[in-house]
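Moderator note: this is an archived Q&A kept for reference. The question asked for a predicted structure of one protein chain; the sequence and the answer are reproduced below.
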Amino acid sequence: MSTVIIPEDFQVNGSLKVVGAINFVAGVDNADVASSAGILATKLQHQHIIPYSQADGSAVAAAIVPIYTCRGATGTVVAFQVACVDSPSGGGDLKFTVDLKIFDADTPAPASILTGVVDYVNDTADGVVLAGTIDSASLVVGDSLMVVVAVSGSTGTQGQGLIVSTTVREDAE
């Protein structure tokens, strides 16, 4: 089979039927896909922003809360952020930590995926967003994530209004 090279722009004002494969030399990126392309969700990677919160007006409390189960073949945790409306204050030792743990049916003992817990200490400025450093970001189908909040200390005022955000990207089911 011979190759035909068209050295200039080429436009088809009608239908184009391709019987064989189309090979894109430079690949296809987002700008090449029309907003009306109608690509099925099963052909896309999905991004989920999973919230967890505790109400403002009550002290941050210890909690272990499952928040997400990966349903695609693979996934990646891309961000973990913690904020507090009213941070622990009063010069005491009250504080709280937030961890993100992974577990599945094969290894039901949850393990942290962060390099260390997010530590919201006494006198951290109100509303500051602290990012967790992700050590092990990979997920596979069936992996579940949980947020673990621990409180400690005895003096000062505990924080109120906890906000946790976990961002996950996963393959379509």
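Archived answer notes: The mean pLDDT is 91.
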